[in-house]
Design goal:
Helices cover about 30% and strands about 25% of the residues. The chain is α+β, with helices and mostly antiparallel strands. It has three domains: about 140 residues, Galactose-binding domain-like (Jelly Rolls); about 170 residues, Spore Coat Polysaccharide Biosynthesis Protein SpsA, Chain A; about 180 residues, no CATH class. The strands form five sheets. Strands 12, 13, 14, 15, 16, 17, 18, 21, 22 and 23 form a ten-stranded mixed β-sheet that branches. Strands 1, 2, 3, 4, 5, 6, 7, 8 and 9 form a nine-stranded antiparallel β-sheet that branches. Helix 10 packs parallel to helix 12 and helix 10 crosses helix 17.
C-alpha cells in the first residue's frame, strides 16, 4: 500500500452548481432523492446543507471520481476522500465495475468531524468510478469535500527510461481568439473566478488574430488587470487555429521566467468548470509517465449533455470517429451516471442506459477545445503542423503517441462547447481544410494501403453530388491539388488559403447565404419526395428504392423553372441525400439557423465536378506511397520552432 503519512494533496474538489443553474445542469453535480421532503441548499460552491432525513448522491459527472483512469495512468494505488461534516450523517462510499454494477465499499455515521476514507484503486482495471452518498440524521452541512492523493507526486519515467520531475502545480493557459471579443473576455473572466485555480496559473497567453479585438470590448480591462503581468496578448494575422495554438506553445516554451511545467490550450468560445484545470494539471503531475491530458466536451446548448467521451482515427479510412466503447450525446439529466435498464429490458438493444460511461476508454487524440501538454512533451515533439484548422490536434497526438506520449481524455475535466452538429463545417469553407489536412496527416501517419481512404472519398463525393453541394466539391478539388503539390508550400499558404477558398465558393449558389427563404417565391412543392428518415435496423434496405429513383433523377436534365422557384424549403436536418437527390432545387437552412442557401441542380456541372474529382482520387491512389515519403521527410521542418518563428516575426 502507498505510504499515507505525507500530507494529502487535492486532485479534484466536490463542487456544487452555480446559484441559479437549471435542474438539468445541477444533475452534473448532485442528485437529490425523490423522497426528500425538503431540498438541500447551498450559498457557495463548496458547502452543502442537507435537511434531516434527506439523501443526496454525488454519483455525478463532476463529482464522482474516475478511478479507472487513475489506476491506469497514475502513480497512485490509493485515493483519499476527505469531507467535513457539521451535524450527523451516514456517508456511504460506492464503486462501480466496468459494466456499471454498483458495489458498496464503506459506510460510516459521521458526527461533527472531518473524515477521511482511504480507498484502494486495485479494482478498476477496465473501468469504474468512486462516489459517495449522504443520508442525514440531522440537518447536516457537508463542506470542503475532495478527492485527494495521499502524497506528493514522484518522478515520471520517460519513453527512453530516464526520469523527469516531479513538477510543480503550475500551468500556462493559452486562448487563441478570432473575432469573438465577448467570448474571449468571458473566458478570461472565468479563469479569474476561482482562487484555487487562479493560483495555479503562471501566465495567460492570448493570440488575437482578428480585427474585432477583445481589448475593445467591455470587461477586458478588468479581466486583464486581474492577471497583471501574467497576461500577454499577441496580435497577428489570421493563421487559423494551428497558428494561434502554435504561438501559445512557442511563447510558453520560450518563457524562461515562468518555465511552466504545463501548457493548457482552451478555445475562446467555451464555458468552463474551472476545477477542470486543476484536475487536468493533477492528472498530468501524478501520471506514471508524461501524458497529454484532454478535457471532454459538454454541449454548450444542451448543457447536461456529454457530446463525446473520446475519439480515435479509424485505421481503414483514416477518419475520425468514436473510440471503442465510447458514446456521443449522453444526457445526464435523463440518464444519470447510475442509470441502468430494468431487468425486463436487459435483452432490448433499443433501451438506453449509462453503463457505457463506466468503462475506461483509450483514445488517439483530444480536441484542442481543452488540452494540456507537459512542457517536456512539447519540448521534445516540437510545434503543431501549419494546417490552419482541422486535424492539427489529431496529428500532434498521433505524433506524440508514436514517441511514447499517449493522450488521455479525462472524465470530469471538461468544457462546454458548441456541438459539431450545429455547424456546417463539413460543407462550408472548412471542407477544404478537412480534406487537405486529412490527407496530409494520413501521409504522415497512415502505414496501411490507401484503398479505404479513397473509397471513403468517393462515397462523400457522391453524397455531395446528390445534395447539390457543388461549392464543397469545388474546394475539395483545391484541397486534393494542394495535397498533391507537397509540403513545401504549407507555411507560404497559411494566410492565403482561406481567402482563395472563399472566393471559389462564392461562384456557387449553394455557398451564398440568403437571410431568409421569405426573400424567394414560395416553394412549389415536390410530391412523393421523402423528407423524413427511415429508422430501425432495416433502414438502409428500405432506402434502396429511394436510391434507384434518385439515380434516375440525377441522370436527367434539370428543369430550369425550379432555379427561379425552389421546390422545397428544408431545415438543416431535412437536407439529406434521399430528399435533395429527387428535386431540382431547394432552400436549406444553415446549421446555425441564420439564413438559407438556395441549392440548384445542374447535371452538367455535377458531371464535370465528378469527373475531375475521380481523376484526382486516382492520382492520389497512384502516388500515395511517394507522397508519404515526401511529407515524412518534411515533418521536422514543418514542426520546428525556427520555421514557426519566421512566421511570427513576419506578423
Amino acid at each position: 500500500m502507498t505510504d499515507t503519512t505525507t500530507a494529502p494533496e487535492v486532485l479534484s474538489r466536490i463542487l456544487l452548481p452555480r446559484i441559479g443553474e437549471p435542474h438539468d445542469v445541477r444533475m452534473l453535480y448532485l442528485i437529490e432523492a425523490d423522497h426528500n421532503k425538503d431540498r438541500a441548499h447551498w450559498g457557495d460552491r463548496s458547502s452543502l446543507t442537507v435537511p434531516a432525513g434527506a439523501e443526496v448522491s454525488f454519483q455525478t459527472y463532476f463529482n464522482a471520481f474516475p478511478a479507472s483512469y487513475w489506476r491506469r495512468w497514475s502513480q497512485l494505488d490509493t485515493v483519499l476522500l476527505t469531507l467535513t461534516v457539521a451535524g450527523s450523517a451516514n456517508v456511504s462510499v460506492y464503486r462501480s465495475k466496468s459494466d456499471g454494477t454498483r458495489v458498496a465499499v464503506e459506510s460510516r455515521l459521521i458526527t461533527d468531524e472531518t473524515a477521511t476514507f482511504a480507498l484502494e484503486l486495485k479494482n478498476f482495471e477496465d473501468g469504474g468510478w468512486l462516489w459517495f452518498d449522504v443520508t442525514c440524521e440531522t440537518e447536516t452541512t457537508i463542506s470542503e469535500a475532495a478527492w485527494c492523493a495521499p502524497h506528493a507526486p514522484a518522478a515520471q519515467t520517460m519513453p527512453d527510461g530516464s526520469t523527469v520531475g516531479p513538477f510543480d502545480k503550475r500551468v500556462t493557459v493559452g486562448i487563441p481568439t478570432f473575432n469573438r471579443p465577448a467570448d474571449a473576455v468571458n473566458a478570461l473572466t472565468e479563469l479569474a473566478i476561482d482562487p484555487v485555480v487562479d493560483e495555479l496559473i503562471d501566465a495567460v497567453l492570448m493570440p488575437d488574430q482578428g480585427n474585432q479585438h477583445p481589448a475593445d470590448h467591455p470587461g477586458y480591462d478588468e479581466a486583464v488587470a486581474h492577471f497583471g503581468d501574467r497576461f500577454r496578448e499577441f496580435r497577428q494575422g489570421n493563421l487559423g487555429g494551428s497558428g494561434g495554438y502554435s504561438r501559445i506553445m512557442y511563447e510558453a516554451i520560450a518563457d524562461a521566467e515562468t518555465n511552466s511545467p504545463y501548457i493548457l490550450y482552451m478555445d475562446d468560445d467555451i464555458a468552463i468548470e474551472p476545477d477542470s484545470i486543476l484536475r487536468a494539471v493533477q492528472a498530468a503531475r501524478y501520471a506514471a509517465s508524461p501524458i497529454i491530458v484532454g478535457g471532454q466536451m459538454l454541449n454548450l446548448q444542451e448543457r447536461s449533455q456529454l457530446r463525446t467521451m473520446g475519439e480515435q482515427v479509424h485505421g481503414h479510412d483514416f477518419m475520425w470517429g468514436a473510440a471503442p466503447h465510447s458514446v456521443y450525446d449522453h444526457d445526464f439529466a435523463k440518464y444519470p451516471l447510475g442509470h441502468k435498464r430494468r431487468p425486463e429490458d436487459e435483452k432490448r438493444p433499443d433501451v438506453y442506459d449509462s453503463r457505457a460511461l463506466h468503462r475506461r476508454i483509450d483514445v488517439d487524440y483530444n480536441g484542442w477545445w481543452m488540452c494540456l501538454f507537459p512542457r517536456v512533451v512539447a519540448e521534445q515533439m516540437g510545434q503543431p503542423l501549419p494546417l490552419f484548422i482541422k486535424w492539427d490536434d489529431t496529428e500532434y497526438s498521433l505524433r506524440a503517441g508514436k514517441a511514447g506520449f499517449p493522450t488521455v481524455t479525462w472524465p470530469g475535466a471538461a468544457i462546454w462547447h458548441m456541438a459539431w452538429a450545429d455547424k456546417d463545417d463539413a460543407i462550408d469553407w472548412q471542407a477544404y481544410f478537412h480534406l487537405r489536412n486529412r490527407l496530409i496527416v494520413a501521409a504522415l501517419n497512415h502505414d496501411g494501403d490507401v484503398d479505404g481512404i479513397i473509397a471513403s472519398l468517393r462515397k462523400t463525393t457522391l453524397k455531395h453530388i446528390m445534395c447539390m453541394e457543388y461549392s464543397t466539391l469545388a474546394i475539395q478539388l483545391e484541397a486534393m491539388r494542394d495535397f498533391l503539390a507537397g509540403p513545401e508550400q504549407l507555411f507560404d499558404v497559411l494566410e492565403t488559403s482561406l481567402p482563395r477558398i472563399q472566393k471559389i465558393r462564392q461562384q456557387y449558389s449553394d455557398a451564398r447565404v440568403i437571410e431568409s427563404a421569405a426573400e424567394l417565391p414560395a416553394a412549389s412543392g415536390a410530391p412523393g419526395v421523402p423528407t423524413a428518415d427511415i429508422g430501425g435496423r432495416l433502414g438502409k434496405i428500405k432506402k434502396i428504392p429511394w436510391l434507384l429513383k434518385s439515380a434516375k433523377h440525377l441522370l436527367s436534365k434539370e428543369d430550369g423553372r425550379h432555379h427561379e422557384v425552389p421546390q422545397l424549403n428544408l431545415t438543416a436536418g431535412e437536407a439529406r441525400w434521399f430528399t435533395l437527390a429527387r428535386v431540382d432545387s431547394a432552400t436549406v437552412t444553415t446549421a446555425g439557423g441564420t439564413g438559407v442557401t438556395f441549392r440548384k441542380r445542374d447535371r452538367d456541372l455535377a458531371k464535370r465536378l465528378w469527373d475531375e474529382t475521380t481523376a484526382l482520387h486516382k492520382e492520389i491512389e497512384r502516388d500515395f506511397d511517394e507522397l508519404r515519403a515526401t511529407y515524412r521527410a518534411a515533418q521536422d521542418r514543418l514542426t520546428s520552432r525556427e520555421e514557426w518563428k519566421k512566421v511570427f516575426d513576419a506578423q
